[in-house]
C-alpha cells in the first residue's frame, strides 16, 4: 500500500512538473512570437522612413541642386561678359523663387509646421495640404481649440501615422469619398479617422499588411492603442493615448 501511495505521489509530482513546463514553454513561445512581430513592425517603420528620406534626398539632389547650379552658372556668365538684361534677371528671380518653394516643401515634409507648437494645428495643416492634391475628397475636420500638448516625439509619431494612412487611402480610386477626422482629449487623447466610400473592401484588402503594421507602429512609438472597425461602407481607425 505504501509503495502504491509513493508511486501516486511521484506521478502527481511528475504531472505538475510537466504542466509547469508546458506553461513555461507556452509563455516562452508567446514572448518569442511577440518579439518577432515587434521586430517586423519596427523594420517596416524603418523601411518606410528610410524610403521617405531617400526620396527627399533624391529630390534635392536632382532638382534643387541642379537648379541652383544652373542659376550660379548663368550669373557667372552674365558677370563675366557684363551682360544682364531685365528679362534674364527676372528669369533668375523666378528660378530662385521656385527653389525657395521647393525647399520649404521639403522642410515641411521632414518637420511639419506647427508640430512643435500644437498637435491640432499640425493635423489641420497636413489635412488641408492633402486636400489640395485630392480636391474630389469631401473632408470634415473637428479639432479642439485648447489642447494639452504631448511630448514632441509622441506628437511626431501621431502625425507620422496620419501621413502614412492618407496615401494608403488615396491609393485606391474612391468615388464619393468622405473623410471625417476628429481629435479629442479627455481622460485619454483620441484621434478618430473615419472613411466612408463605396469600395472600402478594395482598400482594406489591398493594403491589409501595411495597415496592420501601421497600427502596430503607432502602438509602439506613440505608446497608445490603435484599432480598426468596419461597418458597411465605413471604416474607422481609432488611435488612443494617455493625455498629459
From TrEMBL:
What are the entry keywords? Membrane, Transmembrane, Transmembrane helix
> Where are its TM segments located?
18-36
Full protein name? Histidine kinase
Q: Which organism is it from?
A: Phormidesmis priestleyi ULC007
Amino acid at each position: 500500500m505504501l509503495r502504491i501511495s509513493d508511486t501516486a505521489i511521484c506521478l502527481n509530482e511528475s504531472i505538475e512538473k510537466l504542466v509547469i513546463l508546458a506553461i513555461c514553454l507556452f509563455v516562452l513561445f508567446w514572448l518569442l512570437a511577440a518579439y518577432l512581430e515587434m521586430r517586423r513592425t519596427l523594420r517596416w517603420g524603418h523601411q518606410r522612413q528610410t524610403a521617405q528620406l531617400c526620396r527627399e534626398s533624391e529630390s534635392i539632389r536632382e532638382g534643387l541642386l541642379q537648379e541652383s547650379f544652373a542659376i550660379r552658372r548663368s550669373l557667372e556668365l552674365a558677370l563675366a561678359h557684363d551682360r544682364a538684361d531685365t528679362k534674364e534677371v527676372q528669369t533668375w528671380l523666378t528660378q530662385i523663387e521656385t527653389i525657395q518653394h521647393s525647399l520649404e516643401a521639403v522642410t515641411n515634409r521632414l518637420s511639419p509646421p506647427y508640430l512643435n507648437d500644437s498637435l491640432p494645428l499640425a493635423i489641420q495643416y497636413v489635412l488641408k495640404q492633402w486636400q489640395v492634391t485630392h480636391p474630389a475628397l469631401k473632408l470634415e475636420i473637428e479639432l479642439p481649440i485648447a489642447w494639452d500638448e504631448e511630448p514632441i516625439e509622441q506628437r511626431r509619431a501621431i502625425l507620422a501615422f496620419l501621413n502614412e494612412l492618407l496615401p494608403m487611402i488615396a491609393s485606391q480610386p474612391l468615388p464619393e469619398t468622405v473623410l471625417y477626422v476628429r481629435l479629442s482629449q479627455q481622460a485619454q487623447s483620441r484621434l478618430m479617422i473615419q472613411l466612408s466610400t463605396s469600395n472600402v473592401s478594395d482598400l482594406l484588402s489591398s493594403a491589409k499588411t501595411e495597415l496592420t503594421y501601421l497600427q502596430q507602429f503607432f502602438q509602439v512609438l506613440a505608446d497608445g492603442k490603435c484599432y480598426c472597425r468596419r461597418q458597411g461602407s465605413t471604416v474607422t481607425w481609432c488611435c488612443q493615448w494617455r493625455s498629459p
